[in-house]
Amino acid sequence: MADPLIHRNIKLTVAYDGTNYHGFQRQANTAATIQQVLEERLAKIFGSGVTVTGAARTDAGVHAYGQVINFYTAGTIPTQKIPLAAKSVLPEEIVITAAEEVDHNFHARFSAKSKIYIYRIQNTLMPDPFARKYTWHIPLVLDVESMSRAIGSIKGTHDFSAFRASGGAPVNPVRTIIDAACRREGNIVEFCFWGNGFLYHMVRNLVGTLVDVGLGRKPVSALENILATRERKLAGVTAPPQGLFLKQVLY
Amino acid sequence: MADPLIHRNIKLTVAYDGTNYHGFQRQANTAATIQQVLEERLAKIFGSGVTVTGAARTDAGVHAYGQVINFYTAGTIPTQKIPLAAKSVLPEEIVITAAEEVDHNFHARFSAKSKIYIYRIQNTLMPDPFARKYTWHIPLVLDVESMSRAIGSIKGTHDFSAFRASGGAPVNPVRTIIDAACRREGNIVEFCFWGNGFLYHMVRNLVGTLVDVGLGRKPVSALENILATRERKLAGVTAPPQGLFLKQVLY
């Protein structure tokens, strides 16, 4: 057990390019995950093993600007030196952008009040080779006006059963979306989802359905109607992982 | 020989992520190059082998927004259909952004009047994991004001011997820089070089020296002085390839 007299509780903000990782969470098999790499590499600067708790379990190929982790350590490295020290032991896809010592009760996942995810689509006939790992490429023109109206209907508290992965754990499907928006900047269409929590694949399933609206394959009322049915089979495809970024975790 | 009665001369604009390639030019060994991949894959849509001429021989790890190539073909695919057809046969790192049929005398390299290169530095303490393959990360603060003044001295016609790679071919070292500039946008410092031609490693050697100026290790007059000496050993390091992009070739 972490002893407050011996162990500090360290909170780190982590940015990572998830392209080459099998998601955040450590897995029983040998696939590289962000958590496993963090635990193995950070042990080198804290002098003993660390067990990392992450705010969100991002999937394989999903990225983060601001994942938050915490762990208890008896290591003596000054907190403000952690980001640079970590840079020398971590692969360049994983960067510690901030470090602070927090109260012993702080828990990266359970203490989180809300999270912000963004999803980017590259909406252009010929793809940009530099964006291929960080966007979903859709060559047909998306109607941002329709998608903006559709996305408004998910704000508030709803049962999101229709947008959860079929294989997800049987948790309470009710979530509150504080804000959600869609905008175009040049060839990039960006969705932003700010909510108190998200079901497994929920953002990617919402984006897949919004794209159907943007392409005129579903009406603007689709999200509202599908939410009401709670039927997963009515929603659109699961958008591919590489367009999704965990932007921020709020406490 | 290409026969104007049988063969079209096709000019293509090509964007590519050079990260995983050993430069543009086909090599005798088995390393993958952009030219080799273009020739092998484009043959599939033109019905017979194509021999590609590129405007510039970008190095291993260097990128392009607007490389230009040309080749002669008896293939009958309509010109405007080439970009999408090429998308189905090319790896996603290489994208044909424009295609046109040009005069038989057009030669991607010899007809080029000038080229524009840009070089990007990520000037921030902790690196952005998403920019690592497309920028040079320099954590110490660069003085853009000093670099802007220094870069002005290379405009015009000069003997650039001091900034050519030591192993380069013995070509005429005189080149004309039409414009050159340096600016900061947030954490990104961007250099732009517009010239009638560039010696091997010239842009990367100029950037290495400019960075010495930006860090206060060399005076603002360094570029002017080093140019005059024609001594390669006085210039700075060769900036790494991943920050360099061939932006445009002008005809």
What does this structure look like?
Two copies of one chain form a homodimer. In chain A, 20% of the residues lie in helices and 29% in strands. The first copy, chain A, has helices spanning 34-46, 82-87, 144-152, 202-214, 222-229, and strands at 8-16, 53-54, 63-73, 94-102, 114-122, 136-137, 156-159, 174-185, 188-195, 244-250. The first copy, chain A, is an alpha+beta fold. The model of chain A has no long low-confidence stretch (mean pLDDT 94). In chain A, helix 3 crosses helix 4 (202-214). Chain A contains five helices and ten strands; from the N terminus they run βαββαβββαβββααβ. Chains A and B meet through helix 2 and strand 4 of A and helix 2 and strand 4 of B.
Topology:
The structure is a homodimer of 251-residue chains.
Chain A (H helix, E strand, L loop, with lengths): L7 E9 L17 H13 L6 E2 L8 E11 L8 H6 L6 E9 L11 E9 L13 E2 L6 H9 L3 E4 L14 E12 L2 E8 L6 H13 L7 H8 L14 E7 L1
Parallel strand pairs in A: 3-10, 5-6
Antiparallel strand pairs in A: 1-3, 1-4, 2-3, 5-9, 5-10, 7-8, 8-9
* N-to-C series of helices and strands of chain A: EHEEHEEEHEEEHHE
What does the average pLDDT of chain A come to?
94
Morphology of chain A: globular
Number of helices of chain A: 5
Characterize the main sheet of chain A: 10 strands, mixed
Q: How much helical structure, as a percent, in the residues of chain A?
A: 10-25%
Q: Whole-number radius of gyration of chain A? A: 19 Å
Identify the notable features of this structure and list them briefly:
homodimer; 251 residues; alpha+beta; 20% helix; globular
